[in-house]
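Troubleshooting: if your tokenizer reports a length mismatch, compare against these two reference records.
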Amino acid sequence: MKRINLTMQISIGMVIGIILGLVFGPKIAGIQLFGNIFLRLIQMAVVLLIFGMVIESLGQIKANQLKKLGTKTAIWFLVTTVIAAVLGLIIGYMMRPGAGLKLATLHANGSLGKAPKDISTIVLSFFPTNIFEALASGNVIQVIIFAILFGIVLNRANTAGKFDQVLELVKAINGLTIRLVMLVMKLAPLGIMALMAWVTATNGLKVILPLVKFLVAFGIGSASFLIVLFVGISWYAKVPLGGLINGFSRIMLVAFTTTSSAISLPVELADAESRLGVGKAISQLVLPLGMALNSNGLAMYLSLACVTLTQMMGLDLTPGAMVQVVVLALISCLGTVVVPGGGLVALTIVVPTLGLPLQTIAILAGIDWFSGMFRTVLNVVGDTTTAIAIAADENALDRTVYQRQTATKLNLK
């Protein structure tokens, strides 16, 4: 008998929780305690995990690769991720998936309702004065800024292997932390069931409609982002748009159906070379690096989720909070969490930082499998289009593959 995967278990837990909330009503509201315990168990390890993953990702890149192609790759990752995050905000405000629902018994506790800060104060707050204080308080932005700098220094200082032991120690700690998070994630179906039972018991079935609207908004945002990427890369790399889309067809199909960037990677590597003309040296550097450091789909998901949840709370993001959302979406993609339910784990980073109640995560957790379809497609397409752009810059793009694809289609006709 085939084992049900974790995301499906979470979806089943969500359905059971909704049924329990509707059947028993306020009598079952006390079950929230079990859901809150689950969320705290996730929170206790996630800052350490992100801290270590960023250092490991940057520290193990070969120095010559980091210098030669690293800058170009980082710029493309940065640009596409920011576009995805900003597009998520725009779609959220245009479609307003969370509007019309005011969650009972939940209150924001952070800076959402405060007066907007000036841009210099916002930027200054990203940089820590004490890394231990940032770790203790769970200030994710400050922790990641320190981790990025530490990872770069480790990379530069370790060219002769002098600090291999430090890198191996970081990898070992990351491995153990991932095991811890995976252990906690086994409780996710029960935790989400408890939280959804409580949410439904206190708010009723009206909580379902925003979930459908969220998925529609995410689908429209994903389609818009893909159009921007394909048109932009077609122009930049001087390749035919039709051949580009045809070359991506198998990659997108595998990504959409498996909801796994790791499973999609072998197909990406094969099709990037044979169907999209990317040189092997470029694809073998950019695509694995993209899986670790770049996640356009997650960036859009997080920004759209933040807009949706604030709308459910009857609030609006201040300009300062919007900047925070984009920055958090960007840096949450560094060292993408390689555990089941990674989208859920990422939400536990962003939501508390914005001052939103942690329990609101449960509302979107139940549809994480469907969200994962869109996230994965955007992730793999973003990585592969970056590889095409860099190959074009480095004269390592074989454009004849597009001509062969066009000729094959004409022969078939």
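Reference record two:
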Amino acid sequence: MKAFVLLTCLAVPALAQGALAQSDPDDLPPGLVSAELLPGWITPDGHRMTALRLELEPGWKTYWRSPGDAGVPPRFDWQGSQNMAQVTPHWPRPEAIESGGERTLGYHDQLVLPLEIAPATPGQPVDLQAKVDFGLCLDICVPAHIVLTAPPVGDGPDPLIQSALAEVPEQSPDHPLCRIEEIADGMRVTALFPDENAPEVAMELPDTWVSQPELEQRDGMLHAQADFVGETGKPFALDPSQLVLTLIAPDHATEYRGCNTEG
């Protein structure tokens, strides 16, 4: 099963992991220069806008929310936080990264991931603590674990976070055509898009491992095909309305929520 690549990466010995309270350089895992939650600001609707900022050593990379065959997407544990109702990450457009013959989606140099926090009690302060598990890669991938506490909220919008928000994929109201079929260990989805300059496509489904899509230009359309493997390792009922499809070009990205199996 292709998901074995991901499980192998997660099984790297624990000595590659580290923990820190904000950004203690002595406790950072390999490949990481600094890590922090930015102060952020309070939005007009009363939400706290902050961001996870990771600064990476030269040549190292970390991963997007749906990185492909061999990547490790970040996972957050907010149990140490106070007055938090909901966290909405706003993922900036990733780039394609080639490493060890694998193509994944992620970031090099740094990741600024905006995080929008809805308070449980509006008007009251939101205290943030995050345990973050994520992948760091040079020639091989290692899992990293950090613990971060956000500083007090800032006085106004942060240009660094605003710049990252400007890179979030555009939301499209359209629903591309797609074909869904069973395979031995799950499901296969083929989505069709108008032929355009989008060298990368990401396909996502909650709680499901998804392969890096294979792309083909044919009959004036871009065909993107990926395998979806659930916990059972068997075919399952895949709801096309739950699919998230993202076309990623060097200077923009477009996100589609749901696809149309009719037509």
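Descriptive notes for reference record two:
- The CA atoms of residues 92 and 181 lie 31 Å apart.
- Residues 4-10 form the longest helix (7 residues).
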